[in-house]
Design goal:
- With about 350 residues, this protein is of the alpha+beta class.
- It has four domains: about 100 residues, Efflux pump adaptor protein, beta barrel domain (Elongation Factor Tu (Ef-tu), domain 3), CATH 2.40.30; about 70 residues, RNA polymerase II/Efflux pump adaptor protein, barrel-sandwich hybrid domain (OB fold (Dihydrolipoamide Acetyltransferase, E2P), Beta Barrel), CATH 2.40.50; about 40 residues; about 70 residues, Helix Hairpins.
- The chain is about 40% helix and about 25% strand.
- The strands form four sheets. Strands 1-12-16-14-13-17 form a six-stranded antiparallel β-barrel.
Length: about 350
C-alpha cells in the first residue's frame, strides 16, 4: 500500500513537470509595433536628427534678455499669447532709475530757464534803475558845475571873498560828478547790451549737456520695460513677479542654469526644422536646388515633405540637441534648415525632436 502511494505521487509530479516544461517552452507571439519606424524614402538618403523651430529669416527663436538687473514687478503676458511689436511683456523695478531721470530732467529744466533769462536780459526794472542813475548823475554834475561857476565868479570879483581851498573843492566836486556820470552812462550801455555772449554760449552748452544726460537716463529707464521686438507668440516665459533677473537672463531652478527671460517665435502655421548632418556625410549632400527631405514625427506614422530654406555654413559640435555646453564631443555637424506647413490634425511644437531623411548623391 505504501509503495502504491509513492508510485502515484511520483507519477503526478512527473506529469506536472512535463506540463510546466511544455507551457514555459511556448514563445508568445510578438506584439505589433505601436507605430511604423521611420524608413529611408530615398535610395541614398541621409538620416539626421532635427529640432522644430519657429520660422526665422536669421537664427533660431527670439531669445529676450534684459539689459539691466532688478526684480520683476509685473508680468503682462502668458505662454502662448500672441503679441505685437511694441507690446509690453513685463516690467522690472525702475524706482532708482526713474528718480535719477527725474532729477536730471529737473536740472535740465533749470539750465533752460537760466538760458532763457540770459537771452531775455536786460530786465526792464534793471534798465529803469540804470537810467535813473544816469539822470541822478547828470543832475549832480549840473549842481557841481553851478557851484563851481558861482565860486569862480565870486573869486573873479573879489579873490578875498572865496578861499582857494573852497575853490579847489568845487573844482574836485565837478570832476567827481563828471566821472560818476561817465561811469553810470557806461553801466547803462552795459545793461542795454544784455548778457555777455560768452555767458549765453556757456549756459547753452550746459543746458545741452544736461539735456543729453537726461536723454541717456530716459533711454536707460525705458529698458526696464521689456517690449516685444516683433509680432509673434510667447513660447517660453522664465519670469515671475519678484524674480531677480540680469543680462544673463533668469535662473531656472530645474536646469540650474541661466535661461532667456522670454523666448518668442512666429505663428505656428509655418514652422522650420533645423537638421544636423554628420560631418562625415556632408560630401554626400546634393546641391540645394536639388535637395529634398522628409520629416518623420516620432511616435506616429506621419511624414511631412520639407522645403529647403538655407544652410548655416558653419560646422559645430553636436551639442545643440542636448544643451550640454560643457560636454566633450568629437562629432561635428552641419545645420541645414528646411521649412514645412504644420499639420492640422497632429500637434507639433517648436523644440520637438524629429527624424529627418535628406536626399543624397
Amino acid at each position: 500500500m505504501h509503495n502504491r502511494v509513492l508510485f502515484i505521487a511520483s507519477a503526478t509530479g512527473l506529469l506536472i513537470a512535463l506540463a510546466s516544461a511544455y507551457i514555459f517552452s511556448q514563445q508568445p507571439s510578438p506584439q505589433p509595433p505601436a507605430f511604423k519606424p521611420a524608413a529611408n524614402p530615398y535610395a541614398n538618403g541621409i538620416y539626421a536628427n532635427g529640432i522644430v523651430e519657429s520660422v526665422q529669416a536669421q537664427g533660431e527663436n527670439i531669445n529676450i534678455y534684459p539689459e539691466i538687473t532688478g526684480p520683476i514687478t509685473q508680468v503682462l503676458v502668458a505662454e502662448g499669447d500672441r503679441v505685437h511689436k511694441g507690446d509690453v511683456l513685463l516690467t522690472i523695478d525702475d524706482s532708482v532709475q526713474r528718480a535719477t531721470a527725474e532729477q536730471q530732467q529737473a536740472q535740465a529744466d533749470a539750465a533752460r530757464a537760466m538760458l532763457a533769462e540770459l537771452k531775455a536780459e536786460p530786465r526792464p526794472e534793471t534798465l529803469d534803475i540804470a537810467r535813473a542813475q544816469v539822470s541822478n548823475a547828470e543832475a549832480t554834475l549840473r549842481n557841481a558845475e553851478d557851484q563851481l561857476a558861482k565860486q569862480q565868479q565870486a573869486y573873479g570879483i573879489n579873490p578875498r571873498s572865496i578861499s582857494l581851498d573852497a575853490l579847489d573843492n568845487s573844482i574836485n566836486a565837478q570832476r567827481i560828478a563828471a566821472t560818476n556820470l561817465a561811469v553810470v552812462q557806461r553801466q547803462l550801455a552795459l545793461t542795454r547790451a544784455g548778457a555777455w555772449r560768452f555767458d549765453v554760449e556757456n549756459q547753452d552748452r550746459q543746458y545741452a549737456a544736461l539735456l543729453k544726460s537726461y536723454a541717456a537716463s530716459a533711454a536707460l529707464l525705458a529698458k526696464y520695460t521689456i517690449r516685444a521686438p516683433s509680432d509673434g507668440i510667447v513660447r517660453a516665459l522664465q519670469a515671475a513677479v519678484g524674480s531677480y533677473v540680469s543680462p544673463q537672463g533668469a535662473y531656472d531652478s530645474y536646469t540650474r542654469a541661466m535661461s532667456p527671460l522670454i523666448v518668442m517665435g512666429t505663428p505656428d502655421d509655418q514652422l522650420q526644422v533645423r537638421v544636423y548632418i554628420d560631418e562625415i556625410l556632408i560630401h554626400r549632400m546634393t546641391e540645394p536646388s536639388a535637395m529634398h527631405a522628409q520629416l518623420f514625427i516620432r511616435g506616429t506614422d506621419r511624414q511631412i515633405p520639407l522645403t529647403f530654406a538655407r544652410i548655416q555654413p558653419y560646422v559645430t559640435p553636436k551639442i545643440e540637441l542636448s544643451d550640454e555646453r560643457q560636454e566633450r564631443v568629437d562629432l561635428r555637424v552641419l545645420p541645414v534648415i528646411f521649412r514645412f506647413e504644420k499639420p492640422k490634425d497632429i500637434p507639433l511644437y517648436p523644440g520637438q525632436l524629429v527624424d529627418v531623411y535628406v536626399s543624397a548623391r
